[in-house]
Amino acid sequence: MQYVTTLRCIVCGGEFAAHEVDYVCPCAGDEGLLNVSFDYPRLAAVWDRDDLAVDGDHSMWRYAPLLPVSADTLARVVGRGVAAPRGLPRYASPLAQVGGTPLYDAPRVAAKLGLRQVWIKDDGRNPTASLKDRASALVTLKAVERGAEVVTTASSGNAAAALAAMAASVGVRAVIFVPQTAPPAKIAQLLTYGAEVYLVQGTYDEAFDLCLAASREYGWYCRNTGYNPYTVEGKKTVSFEICEQLGWQVPDRVFVSVGDGCIIDGVWKGFKDMRALGWIDMLPKLVGVQAAGSDPLVTAWERGTETIVPIAAQTIADSICVGIPRDGVKALRGVRESGGQFIRVSDEAILAAIPRLAQEAGVFVEPAASTAYAGLLAMADAGQLDADETVVVIATGNGLKDVSAAMRAVGAATKIEPTLAGLAAALAEKPARPAGIGITTVA
Question: Looking at residue 441, what is its pLDDT?
């Protein structure tokens, strides 16, 4: 926290000290989202890329100076800065293992799409298998700092699972609100971590409003996206990692699936933080991809406005099924500032992208994550990308989060009798494999 300067309202421009407000601007109400500001010149004078190069911690906490949490809390809860006994690795809790996810080179994808290079940032490798671990980990630390006994959130599943796990790891009670349509695998995660789970007979947006009301009524610390300013600060660490993993070379475009808008806002904040420190000299264009049945930000983008019209959202991509994007204004501003764009893709394209990404790059994702990849495919097919571009696709969640969606995309396996004759008959009926699928030998 020593490098945090103020929290600044996106509506009225008012500034507050970090201890003055918990969530949103008192003047603008729930629309008054706050941005966390840092003293970049002072930080740049004492911390640089050489310090990172010798830091053996590869989690998101390696970027601790750019995170709004105290060194004492990091030491007590995460073990950051605390010497391990007898030189053994220190794993204080799952909190300590968030981040540090792989960035995969996908040369076959790049070749098929006629691009210079495509990278897949696989954030499904986080402890609860989604990028939302980054936000929930930081918010859990803020709850500990505040002495909160209960943390709460509304979620379609991933943010809730992340918060339930992080809260369990530090012994804080978690109360979760999810729409009753959430995938069973996500609900199972919540219950297994011991969270109190309430299945709301309504939409995610209704669960969101109920969570806000409950947090005010009972004094629970609220993690809600587009309300708690520290969710963005956790999510921005994915951009720090992308920059570092690419040797501080910035990609031309970053594709991000979008629901509430918080992830793409965090992605943009992360790249801007790096440039403010002088660690990178350019910024990427952001491409926000929404499902056609959940596209209020695409519509606002097309109309050239920040006025977001709520819709009755419906899409196979449950994690981005949002009718009222709570971080929508910041998401729109970030994409416009980047020179990027918003696009929409159909549910059919989202489902088709799941096996394509798995078979072309070896990454298994849920529908919300495949949405970003579907956006890349759509823009490439439309000739909207230049051949010399380097692209990063952020895969936000693992495919095991929603196996039923993957099965819809690929169909059933072939049943055979336990004999060679049975196998031979099945092989004879099998259609030819699509080009590019199989084993590739590289010299």
Answer: 23
